[in-house]
C-alpha cells in the first residue's frame, strides 16, 4: 500500500482521498496553508489550480525529491475559457517536471470530475483514470491506487501525452461550464 499526501482540500482533493482510502492506502490531506507540515508520503497529489503550483514548488521542492508527484491540473485560462495557459508544445506536467527534475511526475485525474471519482462510477461503468508519464514505476504506483479502489486505470503513454489529456480536461470543463454536460458526468474509456 502507498502513503499518499494530497495538497488541496477542495472537491478533487477530497475525491482523490476517497479513492486512495478505498484502496487501503494511508492518506493525509494538506491545505495550502499547511506549508510547514512535512510531506512524508511516497506519492504526493497536487490537487490545486495550476497557478498555485509555483508556490508549492517554492515551498516544498526539497520535500518532493524522490517522490511520485501526481499532477491533476488543467491549465485553463479561467478568465476566458478559450485556451490553455501553457505553450502549445508543452503541458502543465512538462513544466512541473522541469521544476522538479528529481521527482517522478505523472499526469492523472485531470480528465475526471470529483463526483465520478468519489462514486467510482461514470454512467454504468467504473470511472476511467488516464495516466501519462515517463517513469513506468510511478505510473504503476498511481495505477495501483486507482485499481485497488475499483476504478479503471489506463496508461495513456509518455509524459508527452499529458498535453492531450489536458486538452480533454479543458474540453470537459468548458462543456460543463456551458451547461452542455453535467459536472457529475464525464468521459469514460471502454476498453
UniProtKB/TrEMBL annotation:
* Top-level taxon in the UniProt lineage: Bacteria
Keywords per UniProt: Oxidoreductase
Q: List the InterPro entries hit by this protein, alphabetically.
A: NAD(P)-bd_dom_sf, P5C_Rdtase_cat_N, STEAP_metalloreductase
Q: Where does the Pyrroline-5-carboxylate reductase catalytic N-terminal domain lie?
A: 40-75
Q: Which GO terms describe its molecular function?
A: oxidoreductase activity
What's the name of the protein? Answer: Diguanylate cyclase
Q: Which organism was this protein described from?
A: Kocuria soli
